[in-house]
């Protein structure tokens, strides 16, 4: 057997070649601290190659280990993976203690303390390295050390090892092997580590945190980890050496602002030195660090430093303040913030420091948190809203009629559904926290109860009026009112967004259906509206009767008369949108859903409809049945309805053009973009275009005002993607509706996918929910084919994505690489998309 290359056990000095890839982040970080001349105890890095050889059974030469014991005689061993989040085997402290050192220590720190240190090591060694039963080594107090040593000898048939180098090489071997274990591998792979991720180890001389004078150990950091605001926090534990608690142990706060005795008051020089180290570390390591230190008789040793763990809102504030202080460039600040972290800043959040009473889990469909009383119907939500009571709409699933109830609620919870089901899409649009597919819940709307089968096996029953909290960021339903943190649209957020705009890259528009959406879109600096789903304008209390009248009309003439009632309202909707967007592009999608969505679903509703239309109930029921489809997602909707009942698109085109004329009179000239949904054949586009052109000509004639418009097509059927070349010849832009395109590519209903998505993702059938993260292999390939064929036909054509994927950072990176012009997403996801777009361009 060959000995490992001993030069790979390297003392960490300012000039040694310590590399993160070979020695790990901790070794590299310690070298930086050494270079800053901070008081770091002598430390040694063991390279990943050596660790690998050790794991294979090779022994490090005793001579190379001897030198680490030259100081206090005690060392610690810590893991040093390439990334801190990959973890590693637990730190082992006090390696090197034996009978002789124990006697010597007793003279310095007292026998009791020396016993405690020796005992701690024997316990660790026996259970983690010799793998003896931990129950045999749990004693404490006088006599425990002798017992533990005896027990070790009895079990192992040999005395406890007295040779420090033997102890160390056994510790190294055990840590090297632990890294190769299946659990450790799975854990780190879950954090993004490759299967063969290397591990380095750091051996460090230990400073004693026990004994006379000021002794102890602690951590200090310089920001509040929840808000990111500057604030010194941490603890100093006097007479505490690792987990070993010595005589006279006492915990101190660090600053005098905290309630209770503080290090700042007790030992101002030590406190001042720590603050100085912190400022230096921030500048040199270009990061907010938590410093771990030991004080021995008033002397500080910096034993480790780690990036401060932080919430999303703190991550924004820290990155911006580092860039503003000139420590990192703005581009790096942009790269350091996870785009989806921004979603947390826009909404209330459950305070991560507080306990949570989780009663159910579901899909985190729309971020943010809200507390309210349970209501089971849209009507109850509206009444609660009228009484000024915050309420949470709880439904098996929502239907378009529920939209008013959603408006009146502070959050939405559904038992069924997936990321792109109705509740999810609408809630994201409204910025409401929402959880869908909470399959552990059973809702009985009639009895007005909600039964939650807890993950531990019990059942809890909640009733209408009971208070719950929805955490749409984590997908957790909490009982009662949780402590919430307010949104953090502060100066740091604005600054980060301004830097993102400076970078440019892929454009970001908003999906906006109402004036409120459009105002939010502008507030977040969307570059226009990429999708206005016009059908959402028809569920209004005033319009629904006219819509139903139109559906029941017997002749085109009657239909036109009903639509004439809706026309001025639609015109007003569009005029408002054009005014708010002030010259930015506005893409209006023509009517998309199947007509049955506008009809009542129960007997009561049918009766009401019959009386309002003055028709016999039997006629109304027959008509409703005739319009009901088995699979409405694939039935008469979108352009199919537009061609079959052309009066609807005629009315919408007229409303758009009249609004164009009106808005252009008052402000910037408007060039509306009209988009046709669910196209699968070029001829559909030709037919609709001919009619829209005729309406445009008529409006020009009547108003004597000239205007232009841009016609676009949604690519949301696989055939449209394949035939994108032909289709491109008849329009000026294509927008990939990746919700429907995903549904149709997988043959997977967007409204029913939630039922098994958890199982599918859990078992690795799908890496992710494809309605959430664009499936690059399948749907993505269709998109690339569509892009390539459309551009081959018409190089200047504008291409975009307006499905929910437009707000998902990974999908945005794909859209950038596919060469799209922009993405369009819910207004509240615009900041996330802008940051993701900037990151793709950096
Ligand atoms: C889509 O299908 O991706 C889309 C944007 O349209 P909708 O979600 O309204 O079907
Ligand atoms: Mg669609």
UniProtKB/TrEMBL annotation:
The keyword Membrane does not apply. This is Pyruvate, phosphate dikinase. It holds the Pfam family PEP-utilizers. Residues 389-475 form the PEP-utilising enzyme mobile domain. It is an enzyme of class 2 (transferase). It comes from Paracoccus nototheniae. It comes from the Bacteria. Its cofactor is Mg(2+). Its EC number is 2.7.9.1. Belongs to the PEP-utilizing enzyme family. Catalyzes the reversible phosphorylation of pyruvate and phosphate. Residues 493-840 form the PEP-utilising enzyme C-terminal domain. The keyword Acyltransferase does not apply.
């Amino acid at each position: 057997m060959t000995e490992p290359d001993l030069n790979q056990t390297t003392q960490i000095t300012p000039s040694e070649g310590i590399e993160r890839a070979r020695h790990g982040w901790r070794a590299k970080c310690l070298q930086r601290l050494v270079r800053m001349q901070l008081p770091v105890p002598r430390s040694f890095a063991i390279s990943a190659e050596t660790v690998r050889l050790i794991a294979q059974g090779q022994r490090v030469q005793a001579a190379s280990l001897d030198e680490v014991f030259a100081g206090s005689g005690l060392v610690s061993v810590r893991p040093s993976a390439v990334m801190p989040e990959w973890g590693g085997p637990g730190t082992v402290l006090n390696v090197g203690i034996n009978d002789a050192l124990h006697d010597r220590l007793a003279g310095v720190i007292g026998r009791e303390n020396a016993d405690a240190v020796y005992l701690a090591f024997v316990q660790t060694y026996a259970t983690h390295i010799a793998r003896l039963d931990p129950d045999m080594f749990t004693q404490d107090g006088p006599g425990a050390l002798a017992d533990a040593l005896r027990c070790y000898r009895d079990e192992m048939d040999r005395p406890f090892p007295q040779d420090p180098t033997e102890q160390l090489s056994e510790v190294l071997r055990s840590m090297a092997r632990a890294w190769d274990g299946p659990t450790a591998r799975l854990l780190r792979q879950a954090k993004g580590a490759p299967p063969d991720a290397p591990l380095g180890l750091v051996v460090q001389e230990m400073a004693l945190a026990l004994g006379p004078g000021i002794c102890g150990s602690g951590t200090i950091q310089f920001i509040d980890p929840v808000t990111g605001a500057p604030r010194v926090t941490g603890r100093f534990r006097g007479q505490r050496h690792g987990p070993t608690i010595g005589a006279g142990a006492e915990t101190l706060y660090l600053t005098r602002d905290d309630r209770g005795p503080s290090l700042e008051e007790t030992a101002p020089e030590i406190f001042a030195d720590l603050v100085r180290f912190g400022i230096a570390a921030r500048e040199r390591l270009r990061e907010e660090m938590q410093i771990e230190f030991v004080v021995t008789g008033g002397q500080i040793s910096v034993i480790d430093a780690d990036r401060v763990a932080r919430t999303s809102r703190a991550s924004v504030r820290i990155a911006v303040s580092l860039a503003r202080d000139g420590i990192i460039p703005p581009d790096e600040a942009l790269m350091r913030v996870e785009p989806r972290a921004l979603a947390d800043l826009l909404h209330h959040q459950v305070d991560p420091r507080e306990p949570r009473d989780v009663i159910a889990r579901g899909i985190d469909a729309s971020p943010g948190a809200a507390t309210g009383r349970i209501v089971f119907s849209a009507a109850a939500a509206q009444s609660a809203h009228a009484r000024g009571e915050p309420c949470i709409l709880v439904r098996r699933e929502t239907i378009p009629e529920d939209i008013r109830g959603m408006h009146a609620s502070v959050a939405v919870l559904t038992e069924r559904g997936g990321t792109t089901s109705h509740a999810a899409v609408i809630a994201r649009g409204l910025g409401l926290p929402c959880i869908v597919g909470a399959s552990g819940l059973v809702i009985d709307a009639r009895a007005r109860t909600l039964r939650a089968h807890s993950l531990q096996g019990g059942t809890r029953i909640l009733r209408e009026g009971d208070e719950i909290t929805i955490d749409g960021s984590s997908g957790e339903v909490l009982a009662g009112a949780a402590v919430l943190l307010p949104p953090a649209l502060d100066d740091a957020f604005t600054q980060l967004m301004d830097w993102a705009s400076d970078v440019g890259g892929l454009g970001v528009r908003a999906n906006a259906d109402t004036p409120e959406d459009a105002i939010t879109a502008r507030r977040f600096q969307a570059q226009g509206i990429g999708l206005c789903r016009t059908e959402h304008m028809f569920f209004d209390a005033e319009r629904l009767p006219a819509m139903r009248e139109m559906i029941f009309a017997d002749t085109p003439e009657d239909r036109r008369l009903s639509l004439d009632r809706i026309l001025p309202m639609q015109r007003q909707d569009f005029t408002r949108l054009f005014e708010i967007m002030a010259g930015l592009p506005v893409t209006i999608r023509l009517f998309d859903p199947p007509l049955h969505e506008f009809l009542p679903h129960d007997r009561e509703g049918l009766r009401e409809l019959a009386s309002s239309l003055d028709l016999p109930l039997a006629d109304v029921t027959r008509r409703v049945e005739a319009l009901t489809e088995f699979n409405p997602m694939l039935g008469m909707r979108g352009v199919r309805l537009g061609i079959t009942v052309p009066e609807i698109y005629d009315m919408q085109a007229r409303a758009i053009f009249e609004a164009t004329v009106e808005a252009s009179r008052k402000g910037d000239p408007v060039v509306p973009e009209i988009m046709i949904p669910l196209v699968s054949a070029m001829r559909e586009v030709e037919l609709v275009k001919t009619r829209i052109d005729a309406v445009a000509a008529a409006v020009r004639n009547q108003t004597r005002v000239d205007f232009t418009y841009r016609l676009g097509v949604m690519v949301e059927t696989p055939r449209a993607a394949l035939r994108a070349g032909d289709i491109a010849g008849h329009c000026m832009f294509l927008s990939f509706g990746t919700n429907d395109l995903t549904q149709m590519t997988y043959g997977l209903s967007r409204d029913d996918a939630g039922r098994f998505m958890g199982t599918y993702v859990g078992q690795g059938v799908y890496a992710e929910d494809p309605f959430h993260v664009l499936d690059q292999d399948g749907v993505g390939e269709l998109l690339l084919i569509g892009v390539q064929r459309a551009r081959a036909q018409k190089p200047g054509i504008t291409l975009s994505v307006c499905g929910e994927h437009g707000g998902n950072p990974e999908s945005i990176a794909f859209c950038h690489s596919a060469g799209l012009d922009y993405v369009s997403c819910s207004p509240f996801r615009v900041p996330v998309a802008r940051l993701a777009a900037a990151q793709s361009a950096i």
